[in-house]
Amino acid sequence: MFDLLVKGGTLPDGTQADIGITGDRIVAVGTLEAEAGRVIDATGDLVAPPFVDPHFHMDATLSYGLPRVNASGTLLEGIALWGELRDLATVDEMVDRAVTYCDWAVSMGLLAIRTHVDTTPDHLRGVEAMLEVKRRVAPYLDLQLVAFPQDGLYRTKTGRENLIRALDMGVDVVGGIPHFERTMEEGAESLRDLGRIAAERGLMWDVHCDETDDPMSRHVETMAREVTRHGLGGRAAGSHLTSMHSMDNYYVSKLLPLIAESGMTAIPNPLINITLQGRHDTYPKRRGLTRVKEMQAMGIPVGWGQDCVLDPWYSLGTADMLDVAFMGLHVAQMTHPAEMERCFTMVTEVNASIMNLPDYGLQVGKRADLVVLDAGNPVEALRLRPARLAVISRGKLVAETKRGDATLHLSGRPATIRRRNP
Ligand code: FE2
After folding, report:
1. Taking the model in full, what pTM does it have?
2. Catalytic: which of 211, 226, 341, 380?
3. What single string gives the DSSP state of each residue in 38-62?
4. What is the pLDDT of residues 275-319, one digit of tens each?
5. Is residue 18 part of a domain?
6. Same domain, yes or no: 278 and 333
7. Is 413 inside any structural domain?
């Protein structure tokens, strides 16, 4: 007798399996006949582990237009706008917006998010707010907080001190933004400093690294060195790495083995990178996405992050990691069937490994978190970005969406169509 039985679904690897759940655990996977308190019929539908977002800014989300829109569309105007907003927003406003975003996330089957939290202002209201959000959503969503010195660790008087204060308050991960420090040397020094802080405190490390079109911005080299020095391996992630798009190919042939040797992971954010990078170019305009396939060929784990939804940097977004992967596969030209399947894995299993989630997956014994999609397989899910028919968190049904069937009013044609593969 199971509490919940998900019947007849297709797993991402193409196998058909029922999933039996008792309490908050997956207790059986296979052809299951036992009784269940509740049965979800997933016949013909894709049953996947939940989506995971390893890079987000929840202190800024759902604030688009406050205090005004980003007219130039650049990263730098976004940072300036956020600099105003973070001193105007109250803790309650930030909590409300973030919890609303988490509702959207749950409805999309997105059940784990790593969010950077700006530790620049002395008031640290964003940190206070995000710690409260983490507490509130903990029963159904894993939230990791990164202490993120948005204006630079050394570029403001209290940047370093406030980052340490945030870690002392309970923030989980050490951040960084070396390309925004005053000089290349101060950027490199910030990485040596932050890598040491992460190692000494036994924390993970996730750096906004080289988010620029400058081909000479080479902090990822220093970061990889520090990750190797402290043995952080997969507990460290380089976010964005957009300068790698513009770097000299010979230099990259030296850099990739250094990144691989360190064991660190990479988090490009395709919706934001394609939107913000190349803004100073005329034509041809650079895409600004890092070298995804080339890193993967070297064995470097690469995920896809969302980064922004309705905030000073990005005016769209729906908390759908399939949108993120869809954009990523286009910009990185990952259109071979095996590459598209990999893109689905990137927003599920790879992102979970980047966040070091210990209890993730559809195997017996894992926590019962999963999503049922109105699609037959991962590639079709990317093509349709379909309804999340059922979302289960900790063994409980937490969200449902109706199928996206359309009714046709055409003589001689079917009355109802579903845009699934023929
Ligand atoms: Fe970011």
Report:
1. 0.98
2. 211
3. EEEE-TTSEEEPPEEEEEE-TTTTT
4. 999 999 999 999 999 999 999 999 999 999 999 999 999 999 999
5. yes
6. yes
7. no
